[in-house]
Amino acid sequence: MPLAVYILGLSVFALGTSEFMLSGLLTPIADDMNVSIPQAGLLISAFAIGMVIGAPLLAVATLRLPRKTTLIALISVFGLGQVAGAVAPTYEILFASRVISAFACAGFWAVGAAVAIAMVPVNSRARAMAVMIGGLSIANVLGVPAGAFLGEHLGWRSAFWAVGLASAVALVGVVTLIPRIPLPEERPQLKRELSIYGDRQVWLSIAITALAAGGVFCAFSYLRPLLTDVSGVSDSWVPAVLGLFGAGALIGTWVGGRVADAHLFGVMLSGITASTVFLAALALFASSPVVTIALAFLLGVSAFFTAPALNARMFNVAGAAPTLAGATTTAAFNLGNTGGPGLGGMVIDADFGFASPAWAGAAMTVVALILVAVSLRLNNGSRVVTGSPAANGLTKPARAEV
User: Fold this and answer.
1) How many CB atoms lie within 10 A of CB 294?
2) pTM
3) Exposed (0-12), middle (13-18) or buried (19+): which is 186, by Cβ within 10 Å?
4) What are the mean pLDDT values of the chain's consecutive 10-residue runs (402 residues total)?
5) DSSP assignment string, 294-359
C-alpha cells in the first residue's frame, strides 16, 4: 500500500469518530438540550443525511479540481463544523452543524476513496478500502469510547472539541504527506460518470450496502440506553463496551480486507448472515449484560468484515466512474445510517422498548441477504451469456468471487 493510503485512513479516524461518537453521547445531549433520546438520535441521522446528499454533490462539484487541494479544503470545513457543534447553544444549531460537517466528511470520503483506488492494482482494491475503513474501526476502538468518556466526565461538548483537534492533526497530515495527485490526461466527463446509474447491479449494490449498514446501526445507535436500561450496565462501563464494538470492527476490517478480493460474494453473504444472527440474539438476550457485551463485539466484527467487500463491489460494477463510485458507496452506507437510527427511533417511540431496534435491524439485514442472492444470480447469469469478466467490471473468475 502506498503511504498516502494510510494517511487517508488516519484522516478518516477523525471523520469516523465524529460520525459514530453520538451513540455514546445521546443521554447527556438529550438532557442538556431538553429533547428526547429518539430526538437526540436524529442527530446521527442528520449526519448520515448530509453524507447521503453531500457525497454525490461534492463528487460532481470537485470532479475537475486538484485532488489534494480538494481534500485540504474538505477536512478544514469538517474541523470548523466540529467547533460549531461544540459551541452550539440550541438543538437546531447543533443539528445544522452536523449536516455541514457531514457534507465535508462525505466529500472527503468520495475523493479519498477514488484517490486510494487509483493508486493500487485492481486486485488490491478491497485491501486499499480496508485501510480507509480501518480508520473508522480505530475510531470505534479509540475515538468513540474516548468521546463517551469525555462526555461522562467533562460534558458532551468536550468530545466535539477533541474531534476538532483531531481534524487539525489530520489536516497537517494531508498537507505534508499526501502527494499532489495529477488529474488524468482525459478530463473526467460528468455524463460518462452518471451513466453508471443505468446499471441495475449498481442499484443492487446501493440497496445491499444501505440495508447491511442500516441494520447494524439501527441497533448500535441505541446501544447506550439498551445497556443501561435493559441490560443493567452502569454508565461507567459504556465506553468500554463501545470500545469492544470498535475492537471487533478493527478485526473484521482486517480479515475482510484480506479475503474480499478473492471471495467477494462469499464475504458479503457470510458477513450479513452473521450480523442477522447477532442482531436477533441481541434482541432476545438483551437483559443479560454478559451476552449483550459479547454481541456488541461480534456485531463490530460482522459489520466491518463485510464493509471492504461492499466497497470493492461498487468499484467493480461502476469502474468507469471511480469518483462517483466512491461517492455512491459513501451515500449508500449513510443511507443505511439514516434509515437505521430513524427506524430504531420509531420502534422505541412506539413503546416496543430499547431492545426493539435490534429486531428492526435484523429485518433490514434479511432483505440485504435476499438482494445479495439476486445480485449473485444476475452476475453469474451475465457470465454465462458474455463469457467475459470484463463485461461486469470484474477481474476474477466467478468462482473466485464466491
Assistant:
1) 17
2) 0.74
3) exposed
4) 81 84 83 85 80 80 81 92 91 90 87 78 74 76 79 87 90 83 63 78 92 91 87 83 84 86 89 96 93 93 90 78 76 82 88 90 96 90 50 38 37
5) HHHHHHHHHHHHHHHHHHHHHHHHTTT-HHHHHHHHHHHHHHHHHHHHHHHHHHHHTT--TTHHHH
pLDDT number for residue 185 = 60
51, 337 Cβ separation under 8 angstroms: yes
Please name the residue that has the C-alpha cell 470548523: 80
> What is the radius of gyration, based on Cα positions, of the chain?
20
Distances (CA, A) of 104 to 71, 72, 156, 255, 384: 9, 10, 22, 29, 42
Please give the backbone phi and psi of residue 201, each rounded to the nearest 5 degrees, phi first.
Answer: -65, -30
pLDDT at 358: 94
Q: In the structure grid, which three cell numbers stand for residue 25, read together?
A: 453521547
DSSP secondary structure code for residue 186 in this structure: S
Closest CA to 109 of 247, 9, 227, 235: 9
Joined together, the cell numbers standing for residue 373 give 442472492
Closest CA to 105 of 124, 125, 91, 85: 85
Count of residues making up the chain: 402
Distances (CA, A) of 290 to 8, 149, 233: 36, 21, 9
**Nearest one of 244, 77, 292, 285 to 167, comparing CA atoms:** 77
**Rounded to the nearest 5 degrees, what angle is found at the Cα of 215, between the Cα atoms of 114 and 248?**
70
CA–CA separation, 22 and 157 (whole Å): 11
Residues 6+ apart with CB under 8 A from 211: 336, 364, 365, 367, 368, 371
Torsions phi, psi of 260, nearest 5?
Answer: -70, -35
Q: What is the pLDDT at residue 394?
A: 38
Q: Cβ distance 128 to 119 under 8 Å?
A: yes
> Could you tell me the three cell numbers for 217?
446501526
Contact 188, 63 (CB under 8 A): yes
For residue 65, count other CB atoms closer than 10 A to its CB.
Answer: 12
Identify residue 109 by its one-letter amino acid code.
Answer: W
First vs last C-alpha separation in the chain: 25
* pLDDT in the model for residue 182: 66
